[in-house]
């Protein structure tokens, strides 16, 4: 998975006297408008590339800016768009790549996202920032079209990466286009919520695509689609609730709302997921604008919230959804 970075946060990693962003700064100096964005890219590169070098066990000075990515960024900016900056390094027979992209959020300003990979011959690994490990795709052979998409580090590339990981790299152009066609609404939604949601492809279950909270410590819901509507689910996995190998506990999966409206679903997800926590939190929706939230399993359903000025008068459907999740957690 790609990693989202808040550029307002600092860390102690330094690159010494080496300045990997020198060429970006030079380009910014030639700009009258848009220079601030390039300086943001430069700041992110100086801050994040040393961390990636440490992760990959290479020297940060071994990374070389892919000039084509800087040229493309220059061209894209003149068209009002933003693309990723790519750095590559070679150590022995392994090639490393780090892609740093910029996203402008409506309420949050700028956030950066990172995609890291390494390859040996036709074997490729992607670094999963959520699981904190390298995910290997054995003997990966994909079409040039999908390869280009994967290298773009766009939100759609994140979805493709998730599908490839779930299917061990066996993704064809036809199969991917079919998945995209069936889940077009979900692709459109992820473009707007990728900084706090993640794609999840359930290949072992129903073979469907969902969006789940990006925060590792937030549980309780996921979003799917039918093709014409978004579907909001209450979702709890027993292995996220308690430390057990007892397979008698089944997952909890219940639909609570549907809407064809992208803005309504985005607003709902903003309410549920656009905040991060150091401790585990269970956020379980009751509808598109109500939810229950707690820090402990036994407290799920005890406190419920209405959003956007609604009075605390729950509908019959919301009360039923609340009762349902309460009944599920009683067994724990």
Write the layout of secondary structure elements.
Layout: E1 3-6, H1 22-29, H2 35-56, E2 64-65, H3 67-78, E3 85-91, E4 94-105, E5 109-120, E6 123-128, E7 133-137, H4 144-151, H5 155-166, H6 173-182, H7 184-193, E8 197-202, E9 208-213, E10 218-225, E11 230-236, H8 238-241, E12 252-259, H9 262-273, E13 281-285, E14 290-294, E15 304-306, H10 316-329
Parallel strand pairs: 10-13
Antiparallel strand pairs: 1-5, 2-3, 3-4, 4-5, 5-6, 6-7, 8-9, 10-11, 11-12, 13-14, 14-15
Helix pairs in contact: 1-2, 4-5, 7-9
Structural class: alpha+beta
Terminus-to-terminus distance: 31 Å
Mean pLDDT: 82
The domain tally reads 2
Question: What pattern of helices and strands is seen along the backbone?
Answer: EHHEHEEEEEHHHHEEEEHEHEEEH
What's the total count of β strands? 15
Main sheet makeup:
7 strands, antiparallel
Q: How big a fraction of the residues is strand?
A: 25-35%
3D shape: globular
- Unreliable parts: 1-15
Number of helices: 10
Global Rg: 21 Å
What is the helix content?
25-40%
């Amino acid at each position: 998975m790609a990693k989202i970075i808040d550029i307002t946060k600092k860390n102690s990693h330094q690159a010494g006297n080496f300045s990997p962003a020198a060429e970006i700064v030079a380009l910014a100096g030639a700009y009258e408008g848009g220079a601030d964005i390039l300086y943001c890219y430069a700041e992110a590169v100086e801050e994040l590339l040393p961390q990636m070098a440490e992760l990959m066990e290479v020297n940060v000075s071994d990374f070389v800016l892919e000039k084509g990515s800087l040229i493309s960024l220059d061209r894209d900016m003149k068209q009002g768009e933003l693309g990723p900056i790519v750095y590559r390094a070679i150590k022995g027979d392994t090639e490393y790549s780090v892609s740093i992209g910029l996203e402008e959020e409506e309420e949050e300003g700028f956030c950066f996202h990172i995609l890291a990979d390494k390859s040996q011959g036709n074997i490729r690994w992607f670094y999963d920032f959520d699981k904190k490990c390298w995910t290997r795709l054995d003997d990966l052979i994909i079409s040039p079209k999908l390869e280009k998409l994967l290298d773009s580090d766009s939100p759609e590339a994140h979805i493709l990466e998730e599908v490839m990981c779930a299917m061990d790299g066996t993704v064809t152009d036809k199969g991917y286009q079919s998945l995209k066609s069936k889940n077009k609404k979900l692709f459109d939604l992820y473009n707007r919520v990728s900084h706090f949601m993640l794609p999840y492809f359930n290949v072992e279950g129903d073979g469907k695509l969902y969006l789940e909270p990006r925060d590792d410590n937030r549980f309780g819901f996921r979003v799917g689609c039918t093709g014409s509507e978004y579907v909001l689910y209450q979702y709890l996995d027993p292995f996220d609730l308690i430390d057990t190998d007892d397979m008698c506990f089944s997952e909890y999966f219940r639909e609570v709302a549907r809407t064809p409206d992208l803005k309504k679903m985005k607003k709902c997800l903003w309410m549920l997921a656009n905040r991060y926590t150091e401790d585990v939190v269970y956020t379980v929706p009751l509808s598109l604008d109500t939810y229950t939230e707690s820090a402990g399993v036994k407290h799920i359903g005890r406190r419920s919230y209405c959003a956007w000025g609604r009075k605390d008068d729950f509908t019959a459907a919301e009360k039923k959804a609340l009762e349902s999740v309460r009944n599920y957690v009683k067994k724990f």
